[in-house]
Amino acid sequence: MLALLAAGCTVGPKYQRPVIQSPVAYKETAPDAYKEWQAAHPSDATLRGDWWTLFGDAQLNALEQQVDVSNQNLKSAEARFEQARALIKVQQSQRSPTVTVGPSITTNRDSATYAEATAKTSSQFGNFSLPFDVSYEVDAWGRVKHSIEAARNEAQATEADLETLRLSYHAELAYDYFELRSADAEQKLLDDTVVAYQKALDLTENRFEGGVAAGAEVAQAKTQLEATKTQDADIAVRRAQFEHAVAVLTGQSPAALSLAPLPLTEEPPAIPVGLPSQLLERRPDIAASERRVAEANEQVGIAHAAFFPQIMLGALLGLEGQSIGDWLNWPSRFWAVGPSVLQTVFDGGRRRATQQASEFDYDATVATYRETALDAFQQVEDNLAALRVLEKETTTQKAAVAAAEQSLALSTNRYTGGLVTYLEVVTAQSAALANERTAVDILRRRMDASVLLIKALGGGWDSSKLPKLTN
């Protein structure tokens, strides 16, 4: 009867997921916003867990495969998730009775001067006891049920935290990898430029020796060459830092990883964006926030249950005797069975304050959940805008590079023919190099924005992958 009572008397609010108003479509995918660029339609493809394969880079694929098995921070997060799963079992144990046994063997002597002693004599006797104590709390108000649900929700949130961390490390690896390859592309550009500037210096020196060029022109050519060599050498610092970062992300010492130069040349892939409403199910950090809202709701139920009496069913049974001979005899048995009720009648407002604190904590987690969703929408929009604008910049920058190269060729020919001074060549060289480096940088930013967009979209994860963690 008490068990049936427990099933119908659970107190506390029933959980309902907080409402988040998501836009019908992303602003940056509106037709009038991306005439020059368009993301893949939802039907074109879907992001998978191994989303980095979209870039078609075998070296990146091999590096990404090492993150899950070698990254120590991920191993730490996995251990925290397993800890959270274990805590569910701790709470579930409250559904079962607790049985304790405390055998004892003692020798006792009564005091001869005790007031109730007979004829002021003492007695000595043994006591052999084998008691079994059984206790069980009837979950009449749902405290245990709420505790189990809270632990389950926290475990699911911890799993979502793990997926958020996993996505972050995979995205960071791809980001650093494309930064490294961009450095390789810039290095190659500067290497080629140094060769071209050396030829220009040789030309100037030959003209100087022939008496048709001034010494100042030779100095200008040397200055241009040496300054470019300095820029060329400086790229190695940035490249080394990104190579070291890639090594650590894959669980290796920086000394153990060496990546051969491979200049970045590929265009970023089309990325299936989907609808804003889908983002709420595709981001693990949003799922973690939502699960913690559910956990906070269960904590409110636990606080409510504290206002009701605690109902315990108890039983004590065992054997007790004064000698080994009669210890295990049937007449030595004893037992006691009965329920007990414990109700706090005054606590100075502690339970009321605890309830209020749990309700405010619930409000805070709801606000965090909604802010996390807003941040996610912003990140998607930011990177969609970056890709759209950078695609347009790519077109105009290609035209600028072509014009700068043509200007350099004309200036060099005019200088060779003695029509202009070397200063015009230097100016054209600087403009050409600056525009070529800008083109490399735009491609780098496009690849980075693609990685960040995939990360903002959840990287192929969805909330259906959360563990059920049923009883």
Describe, in plain words, how this protein is organized in 3D.
There is one protein chain. The protein has 471 residues and is of the alpha+beta class. 59% of the residues lie in helices and 10% in strands.
Secondary structure blueprint with pairings:
Elements: H1 2-8, H2 58-70, H3 72-92, E1 98-101, E2 104-109, E3 124-138, H4 143-209, H5 215-249, H6 276-282, H7 284-305, E4 310-321, H8 324-327, E5 333-342, H9 350-416, H10 422-456
Antiparallel strand pairs: 1-3, 2-3, 3-4, 4-5
Helix pairs in contact: 2-4, 3-4, 4-5, 4-7, 4-10, 5-10, 7-9, 9-10
Characteristic terms for this protein:
single chain; 471 residues; alpha+beta; Outer membrane efflux proteins (OEP); 10 helices; 59% helix
What is the total number of structural domains? Answer: 1
Mean pLDDT: 89
- The low-confidence runs, each spanning 5 or more residues with pLDDT under 50, are 33-37, 40-44
Helix proportion of residues, in percent? 55-70%
- The DSSP helix count reads 10
Class based on secondary structure composition and strand pairing = alpha+beta
Q: Gap between N and C termini, in Å? A: 24 Å
Q: What is the CATH architecture annotation?
A: Up-down Bundle
CATH topology: Outer membrane efflux proteins (OEP)
Series of H and E elements? HHHEEEHHHHEHEHH
**DSSP, total strands:** 5
The rounded Rg comes to 38 Å
* Proportion of residues in extended strands: 5-15%
Give the CATH H-level superfamily: Outer membrane efflux proteins (OEP)
